[in-house]
Amino acid sequence: MVAVTLALIGALAALNHWRHTRASRSSLPSLPATFANRVPTRVLWAWEEPEDLRTLPTNVGIAYLAETYLLTDHITVLPRRQPLSPAPGTTLIAVVRIETRQGFADTPALRLALAEHLAYYGTRRDIQALQLDFDATQSQQPFYRSVLELLRPQIPHTLPLSITALVSWCAPHSWLHTLPIDEAIPMEFRMGGPRAMAFASTTRPSYPITEPLCRTSLGLSTDEPWPASVSTLNPSTRVYLFAPRPWRPAELAAISTTPLTSLARELAR
């Protein structure tokens, strides 16, 4: 217990130092700028499916499921099981899916252990960013906040850190507001309602996104209508695309060149 306490104190001190350094040293690149320079504005999610993406144009990135962590009173690590074949030079984002299971126990030791597991990605030279995908009930939000605060000082300041986010997390007074991350991706799909509604119309109503961390990116799926706000997106907005099946070769070039306002129909074919 003493070792865990000392480790927590050290990690929090490092986080405070990182915050101070980021605010005071103008010679360091800002993380959002680093993100923009390292990660394209269109990114495919490659989930637990066999993916041959060798023909994907290099102006499209790949956010691939690297590992899944199952949390009880300890961490069970499940590596990616399906093959992934990216094109040489493709921007890669490692995605770690985190799930709580029966027996989940929020303890300082588990928070620290999870942060240390994730810190491994800070040593990788083949990825341009790290992304965390998790569901958090209100009672679990302090756990994830703490993990992110413990993690951030352990990875290079030039490695962008992002999370996926429920749209409801992106409303005013969001719990995300002061997290030490560079991007929270509003997931504009799987938001409830029958799947049969997919593509009954070309768009659906947009939900207000006010949290600044949520306003630089957007998550969309090929099998659901896209929000009306797609037509007015800032060109610099990073759009992540999910498909509930392996990506098809004919789609890869379209994602690279087709305007978003036309892309939904193109991918739904």
How would you briefly describe this protein structure?
By secondary structure, the protein is α/β, with parallel strands linked by helices. 27% of the residues lie in helices and 24% in strands.
Keywords:
about 270 residues; TIM Barrel; nine-stranded mixed sheet; two-stranded parallel ribbon; 13 strands
Can you describe this structure?
27% of the residues lie in helices and 24% in strands. The termini are far apart. The strands form three sheets. Strands 1, 3, 4, 6, 7, 8, 9, 11 and 13 form a nine-stranded mixed β-sheet that branches. Strands 2-5 form a two-stranded parallel ribbon. Helix 4 (141-151) links the parallel strand 7 and strand 8 (161-165). The longest helix is centred in the N-terminal third of the chain and has 23 residues, at 2-24. It has one domain (2-268): TIM Barrel (Alpha-Beta Barrel), CATH 3.20.20. With 269 residues, it is α/β, with parallel strands linked by helices. The protein has helices at 2-24, 31-38, 108-119, 141-151, 249-257, 260-268, and strands spanning 42-46, 51-53, 61-71, 75-79, 84-86, 92-100, 129-134, 161-165, 183-186, 203-204, 217-221, 226-227, 238-242. The protein is built from six helices and 13 strands.
